[in-house]
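Protocol step 4 of 5: obtain the predicted structure for the target chain.
Materials: sequence only (see below). No template structures provided, no constraints applied. The aim of this step is simply to have a reference model before the mutagenesis design in step 5. Sequence pasted as it appears in the construct record:
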Amino acid sequence: MRQILLCLCSLMLITGNVFSEPPADGFFPYQYEKMTLDNGLTALLIPIKGSGLMSYYTIVRTGSRDEVEPGKSGFAHFFEHMMFRGTEKYPASVYEHTLTEMGANHNAYTTDDYTCYYMTFPGNRLETAVDMESDRFQNLSYAEGPFRTEAGAVYGEYRKNRVNPWVVAHEEISNLAFETHTYKHTTMGFEADIKEMPNAYEYSKSFFQRFYRPENSVLMFTGDFDVEQAKTLIRKHYGNWQKGYVAPKVNPEPPQTKERSKEVIYEGKTLPIIWIAYKSAGFDPNNKMIAAASLLGGLAFGENSDLYKKLVIREQKVQFISEGFGFTRDPKFYSIYTMVKDEANIDYVKAEIDKTIETFQTELIPETELAKIKSRNRYGFLMALDTPNNVASNLARIIALAGGEGIEANNQLYANYDKVTPEDIRLAAKTYLQKERRTIITVKGDR
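Step 4 output (structure tokens):
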């Protein structure tokens, strides 16, 4: 794999399609520049010459985690919808027509910890793109009628999503696993709060004023663009964006001291779902245990794990088994989830998961296995940086968590991956995969 990657990198350097000369140190393979305006807005500029295309990301470091007011869950996601309602200068129809004329691909998404807006377009249209994006992030305008219409559409989206049993499982496990922290609700929010959104027009405007501020946002430009032009445009169009962000007071979750479990009946037909969530640690690139836990997830429950080979391939007891040992701003959970083919095997599958955890808590994995997953992890990330949009999308979460220092945090994280030992993997299993720290949801169909 290393030889293949080196050959590809050499070819890309020759053709000029992807890699510019890599930095002298650090894991991230591209040169980049960082600028910060007086109002606190940070921009990360990552030029990648040759394709003619660039991606433009605006990361607002507000997600469902920040919805601390009672009765107002789901507003970060809802506001993602409202951001496409236009301004006086660029009404929604003009905004969409201009992007279409540019040949731009654009969209947005909301998560627990951030909201991300992105577009990919020819780099020679950067001036138009900056003019439009800076305008809507400072001058968004919408009347109460369109607001109510969009609120109704969001509730329709929520009801449509409930058709998926995994959405039901996610909602149930979040609600059960947390008592006080805002991770208790999903990004969509509690249903009662979503139904009330049409009556929160004034609140919506205050949400925009509080959270859509320069010091709470990071711009990221990747691809084929002129860096000096980008700097000039950012200063010109974003320099007057007024500061005003105040971080919400998110209540920390008290330590979980007892296992929680629940059986959920899904209104429809589904194979049984098992979702086991252990309380995790918040993201800290300097904490080697965070890196160890991330590797632990893949080693114990990934597609190359012994458990996967046993339950999925040899015994065929489950459709799949997977893990989510990802990163969040505050402690959330490390997930193990699977879909069982026969309800009679639910207890057996749970027991096999427990046996696997016990093995990792008591035995040291071979150095060769740890080296393999480090290699897959490292080169998997690098090989995914093949287009301007993929560069930006693969950095978005860590930038949302670490702000303008996101690329440096990414470098530190991968430096810690390299340092993880078999003893660290065992310690991570002992530290995080404790039964009293876990929540288990079992979902069954009603027919």
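Step 4 remarks: The two ends are 47 Å apart (CA to CA). The chain has 16 helices and eleven strands.
Proceed to step 5.
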